[in-house]
Protein backbone atom coordinates (compact mmCIF):
# COMPACT_ATOMS: atom_id res chain seq x y z
CA UNK A 1 0.00 0.00 0.00
CA UNK A 2 2.87 2.34 0.91
CA UNK A 3 4.63 1.64 -2.41
CA UNK A 4 1.45 2.27 -4.35
CA UNK A 5 0.85 5.57 -2.53
CA UNK A 6 4.45 6.56 -3.12
CA UNK A 7 4.06 5.94 -6.86
CA UNK A 8 0.86 7.98 -6.98
CA UNK A 9 2.60 10.91 -5.28
CA UNK A 10 5.84 10.70 -7.24
CA UNK A 11 4.35 10.26 -10.74
CA UNK A 12 2.89 13.81 -11.06
CA UNK A 13 6.15 15.22 -9.65
CA UNK A 14 8.09 13.27 -12.25
CA UNK A 15 5.90 14.64 -15.03
CA UNK A 16 6.43 18.19 -13.76
CA UNK A 17 10.18 17.64 -13.61
CA UNK A 18 10.32 16.23 -17.13
CA UNK A 19 8.13 19.03 -18.41
CA UNK A 20 10.36 21.66 -16.84
CA UNK A 21 13.47 20.03 -18.30
CA UNK A 22 11.75 19.58 -21.66
CA UNK A 23 11.11 23.31 -22.07
CA UNK A 24 14.79 23.86 -22.84
CA UNK A 25 15.17 20.56 -24.68
CA UNK A 26 12.30 21.50 -26.98
CA UNK A 27 14.15 24.64 -28.03
CA UNK A 28 17.38 22.88 -29.03
CA UNK A 29 18.14 22.88 -32.75
CA UNK A 30 17.16 19.38 -33.90
CA UNK A 31 19.17 19.53 -37.12
CA UNK A 32 22.34 20.46 -35.22
CA UNK A 33 21.73 17.71 -32.67
CA UNK A 34 21.34 15.09 -35.40
CA UNK A 35 24.48 16.25 -37.20
CA UNK A 36 26.51 16.00 -33.99
CA UNK A 37 25.35 12.51 -33.02
CA UNK A 38 27.61 9.59 -33.86
CA UNK A 39 24.48 7.59 -34.64
CA UNK A 40 21.74 10.10 -35.51
CA UNK A 41 18.36 9.47 -33.87
CA UNK A 42 15.10 11.08 -34.96
CA UNK A 43 12.21 10.62 -32.52
CA UNK A 44 8.83 10.33 -34.20
CA UNK A 45 5.53 10.51 -32.33
CA UNK A 46 3.25 7.79 -33.72
CA UNK A 47 -0.04 6.23 -32.70
CA UNK A 48 -0.24 2.65 -31.47
CA UNK A 49 -4.00 2.05 -31.70
CA UNK A 50 -4.71 2.98 -35.32
CA UNK A 51 -4.91 0.12 -37.80
CA UNK A 52 -3.00 0.79 -41.05
CA UNK A 53 -1.21 3.88 -39.68
CA UNK A 54 0.25 2.93 -36.31
CA UNK A 55 -0.76 -0.19 -34.41
CA UNK A 56 1.14 -2.22 -31.86
CA UNK A 57 1.85 -5.68 -33.32
CA UNK A 58 2.25 -8.25 -30.56
CA UNK A 59 4.06 -10.73 -32.80
CA UNK A 60 6.65 -8.13 -33.84
CA UNK A 61 6.59 -6.37 -30.45
CA UNK A 62 6.64 -3.07 -32.30
CA UNK A 63 4.35 -0.40 -33.71
CA UNK A 64 3.71 -0.97 -37.40
CA UNK A 65 1.85 0.97 -40.06
CA UNK A 66 1.96 3.53 -42.85
CA UNK A 67 3.09 6.40 -40.61
CA UNK A 68 5.86 4.24 -39.13
CA UNK A 69 7.18 3.23 -42.55
CA UNK A 70 7.09 6.82 -43.79
CA UNK A 71 9.01 7.95 -40.69
CA UNK A 72 11.66 5.31 -41.33
CA UNK A 73 11.95 6.27 -44.99
CA UNK A 74 12.34 9.96 -44.09
CA UNK A 75 14.99 9.10 -41.49
CA UNK A 76 16.90 7.11 -44.09
CA UNK A 77 17.06 10.13 -46.39
CA UNK A 78 17.69 12.72 -43.68
CA UNK A 79 20.61 10.82 -42.11
CA UNK A 80 22.14 9.39 -45.30
CA UNK A 81 21.20 5.91 -44.16
CA UNK A 82 23.15 6.21 -40.91
CA UNK A 83 20.35 7.10 -38.50
CA UNK A 84 17.74 5.43 -36.33
CA UNK A 85 14.03 6.21 -36.43
CA UNK A 86 12.77 5.97 -32.85
CA UNK A 87 9.00 5.53 -32.47
CA UNK A 88 7.37 7.14 -29.44
CA UNK A 89 3.74 6.32 -28.68
CA UNK A 90 1.37 9.31 -28.70
CA UNK A 91 -2.37 9.91 -28.91
CA UNK A 92 -4.52 12.86 -29.98
CA UNK A 93 -4.28 14.46 -26.53
CA UNK A 94 -0.59 13.93 -25.77
CA UNK A 95 1.10 14.46 -29.12
CA UNK A 96 1.42 18.28 -29.09
CA UNK A 97 2.52 18.51 -25.41
CA UNK A 98 5.19 15.86 -26.05
CA UNK A 99 6.40 17.81 -29.08
CA UNK A 100 6.47 21.09 -27.16
CA UNK A 101 8.39 19.50 -24.28
CA UNK A 102 11.03 18.10 -26.63
CA UNK A 103 10.16 14.46 -25.94
CA UNK A 104 9.74 13.93 -29.68
CA UNK A 105 11.13 15.68 -32.76
CA UNK A 106 8.06 15.37 -34.97
CA UNK A 107 4.52 14.03 -34.98
CA UNK A 108 3.48 11.67 -37.76
CA UNK A 109 0.22 10.39 -36.31
CA UNK A 110 -2.82 10.91 -38.57
CA UNK A 111 -2.71 14.63 -37.70
CA UNK A 112 -4.86 16.91 -39.84
CA UNK A 113 -3.49 20.28 -40.91
CA UNK A 114 -5.75 23.01 -39.50
CA UNK A 115 -5.48 26.77 -39.09
CA UNK A 116 -5.83 26.41 -35.33
CA UNK A 117 -2.96 23.95 -35.07
CA UNK A 118 -0.79 26.06 -37.36
CA UNK A 119 -0.80 28.71 -34.64
CA UNK A 120 1.22 26.43 -32.35
CA UNK A 121 3.16 24.05 -34.65
CA UNK A 122 4.60 23.93 -38.14
CA UNK A 123 3.31 21.36 -40.61
CA UNK A 124 5.18 19.64 -43.40
CA UNK A 125 3.73 19.37 -46.86
CA UNK A 126 0.74 17.03 -47.03
CA UNK A 127 1.81 13.39 -46.83
CA UNK A 128 -1.64 11.77 -46.90
CA UNK A 129 -5.03 12.92 -48.23
CA UNK A 130 -7.79 11.80 -45.88
CA UNK A 131 -11.38 12.86 -45.30
CA UNK A 132 -13.85 12.62 -42.43
CA UNK A 133 -16.56 9.99 -42.66
CA UNK A 134 -18.96 7.90 -40.55
CA UNK A 135 -18.63 4.26 -39.52
CA UNK A 136 -21.88 2.38 -38.88
CA UNK A 137 -23.07 -1.24 -38.60
CA UNK A 138 -24.09 -2.81 -41.92
CA UNK A 139 -27.77 -2.78 -40.93
CA UNK A 140 -27.79 0.90 -39.88
CA UNK A 141 -30.29 3.31 -41.45
CA UNK A 142 -27.65 6.05 -41.51
CA UNK A 143 -26.62 6.78 -45.09
CA UNK A 144 -24.51 9.87 -44.50
CA UNK A 145 -24.18 12.98 -42.39
CA UNK A 146 -27.38 14.44 -43.88
CA UNK A 147 -29.45 11.57 -42.48
CA UNK A 148 -28.38 12.02 -38.85
CA UNK A 149 -31.17 12.99 -36.43
CA UNK A 150 -31.44 14.47 -32.93
CA UNK A 151 -32.22 10.99 -31.64
CA UNK A 152 -28.80 9.65 -32.57
CA UNK A 153 -25.38 9.74 -30.92
CA UNK A 154 -22.12 10.06 -32.80
CA UNK A 155 -18.90 8.89 -31.17
CA UNK A 156 -15.74 10.94 -31.70
CA UNK A 157 -12.21 11.04 -30.28
CA UNK A 158 -11.07 13.63 -27.75
CA UNK A 159 -8.53 16.10 -29.09
CA UNK A 160 -9.41 15.40 -32.73
CA UNK A 161 -10.82 17.77 -35.33
CA UNK A 162 -13.56 15.24 -36.05
CA UNK A 163 -15.44 16.01 -32.82
CA UNK A 164 -15.71 19.71 -33.60
CA UNK A 165 -16.52 19.08 -37.27
CA UNK A 166 -19.48 16.86 -36.45
CA UNK A 167 -20.80 19.44 -33.96
CA UNK A 168 -20.54 22.16 -36.61
CA UNK A 169 -22.03 20.17 -39.48
CA UNK A 170 -24.66 18.14 -37.58
CA UNK A 171 -25.52 20.26 -34.51
CA UNK A 172 -28.70 18.25 -33.90
CA UNK A 173 -26.87 15.05 -32.90
CA UNK A 174 -25.47 14.08 -29.52
CA UNK A 175 -21.67 13.79 -29.55
CA UNK A 176 -19.93 11.45 -27.14
CA UNK A 177 -16.14 11.81 -27.00
CA UNK A 178 -13.92 8.82 -26.26
CA UNK A 179 -10.25 8.66 -25.28
CA UNK A 180 -9.00 6.77 -28.35
CA UNK A 181 -10.08 4.81 -31.41
CA UNK A 182 -10.15 1.48 -29.61
CA UNK A 183 -12.55 2.82 -26.99
CA UNK A 184 -14.58 4.51 -29.70
CA UNK A 185 -15.08 1.30 -31.65
CA UNK A 186 -15.91 -0.72 -28.53
CA UNK A 187 -18.51 1.94 -27.66
CA UNK A 188 -20.01 1.60 -31.14
CA UNK A 189 -20.12 -2.18 -30.80
CA UNK A 190 -21.85 -1.94 -27.43
CA UNK A 191 -24.50 0.46 -28.71
CA UNK A 192 -23.35 3.59 -26.87
CA UNK A 193 -23.43 5.40 -30.18
CA UNK A 194 -25.05 5.04 -33.58
CA UNK A 195 -21.95 6.01 -35.57
CA UNK A 196 -18.25 6.64 -35.08
CA UNK A 197 -16.65 9.53 -36.91
CA UNK A 198 -13.03 10.14 -37.84
CA UNK A 199 -10.94 10.03 -41.00
CA UNK A 200 -12.00 7.53 -43.65
CA UNK A 201 -8.61 5.81 -43.83
CA UNK A 202 -8.71 5.07 -40.09
CA UNK A 203 -12.26 3.77 -40.36
CA UNK A 204 -11.27 1.54 -43.28
CA UNK A 205 -8.65 0.01 -41.01
CA UNK A 206 -11.40 -0.88 -38.55
CA UNK A 207 -13.54 -2.35 -41.33
CA UNK A 208 -10.63 -4.54 -42.48
CA UNK A 209 -10.83 -6.28 -39.09
CA UNK A 210 -14.61 -5.98 -38.64
CA UNK A 211 -16.51 -6.61 -41.90
CA UNK A 212 -19.90 -6.14 -40.21
CA UNK A 213 -19.38 -2.38 -40.44
CA UNK A 214 -19.38 0.06 -43.36
CA UNK A 215 -18.79 3.71 -44.23
CA UNK A 216 -21.99 5.75 -44.44
CA UNK A 217 -22.08 8.21 -47.31
CA UNK A 218 -19.30 10.30 -48.77
CA UNK A 219 -16.45 12.15 -47.11
CA UNK A 220 -17.83 15.41 -45.70
CA UNK A 221 -14.63 17.18 -44.61
CA UNK A 222 -11.18 17.01 -46.22
CA UNK A 223 -8.55 16.10 -43.62
CA UNK A 224 -5.06 16.29 -45.16
CA UNK A 225 -2.36 14.89 -42.89
CA UNK A 226 0.91 16.70 -42.22
CA UNK A 227 3.95 16.04 -40.06
CA UNK A 228 3.90 18.43 -37.09
CA UNK A 229 7.16 20.10 -36.06
CA UNK A 230 7.79 22.57 -33.28
CA UNK A 231 7.93 26.30 -33.89
CA UNK A 232 11.52 27.48 -34.13
CA UNK A 233 12.62 24.30 -35.95
CA UNK A 234 12.43 25.71 -39.48
CA UNK A 235 15.68 24.04 -40.55
CA UNK A 236 14.36 20.65 -39.49
CA UNK A 237 11.03 21.38 -41.24
CA UNK A 238 12.89 22.12 -44.47
CA UNK A 239 14.81 18.85 -44.14
CA UNK A 240 11.59 16.88 -43.58
CA UNK A 241 9.92 18.45 -46.62
CA UNK A 242 12.97 17.79 -48.77
CA UNK A 243 13.05 14.13 -47.67
CA UNK A 244 9.31 13.81 -48.27
CA UNK A 245 9.76 15.15 -51.79
CA UNK A 246 12.59 12.66 -52.36
CA UNK A 247 10.63 9.57 -51.29
CA UNK A 248 7.72 10.65 -53.47
CA UNK A 249 10.04 11.11 -56.46
CA UNK A 250 12.02 7.87 -56.07
CA UNK A 251 8.99 5.59 -55.66
CA UNK A 252 9.45 4.79 -51.97
CA UNK A 253 6.25 6.59 -50.99
CA UNK A 254 4.20 4.64 -53.55
CA UNK A 255 5.64 1.35 -52.33
CA UNK A 256 4.65 2.13 -48.76
CA UNK A 257 1.21 3.38 -49.80
CA UNK A 258 0.42 0.23 -51.77
CA UNK A 259 1.73 -1.96 -48.95
CA UNK A 260 -0.93 -0.61 -46.58
CA UNK A 261 -3.80 0.63 -48.73
CA UNK A 262 -4.07 -1.57 -51.83
CA UNK A 263 -7.74 -2.33 -52.38
CA UNK A 264 -8.89 0.00 -49.59
CA UNK A 265 -8.37 3.55 -50.84
CA UNK A 266 -9.51 4.83 -54.22
CA UNK A 267 -6.69 6.05 -56.42
CA UNK A 268 -6.75 9.73 -57.36
TrEMBL record:
Keywords: Signal, Transport. One of its GO terms (cellular component) is outer membrane-bounded periplasmic space. Residues 41-263 form the Ionotropic glutamate receptor C-terminal domain. Pfam families: SBP_bac_3. Residues 41-264 form the Solute-binding protein family 3/N-terminal domain. Gene3D superfamilies: Periplasmic binding protein-like II (3.40.190.10). GO terms for biological process: amino acid transport. The keyword Signal applies. Residues 1-22 form the signal peptide. GO terms for molecular function: ligand-gated monoatomic ion channel activity. PANTHER family: ABC TRANSPORTER GLUTAMINE-BINDING PROTEIN GLNH, AMINO ACID ABC TRANSPORTER PERMEASE. Belongs to the bacterial solute-binding protein 3 family. This is Transporter substrate-binding domain-containing protein. It comes from Fundicoccus ignavus.
Amino acid sequence: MFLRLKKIIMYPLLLLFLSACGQSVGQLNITERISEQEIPVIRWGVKSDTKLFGLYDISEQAIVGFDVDIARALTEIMTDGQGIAEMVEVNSKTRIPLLKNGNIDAIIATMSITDERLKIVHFSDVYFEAGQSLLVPLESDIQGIDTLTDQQTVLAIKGSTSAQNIRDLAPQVNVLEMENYSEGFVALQSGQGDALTTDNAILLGMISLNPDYRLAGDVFVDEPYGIAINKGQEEFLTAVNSALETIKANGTYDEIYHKWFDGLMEEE
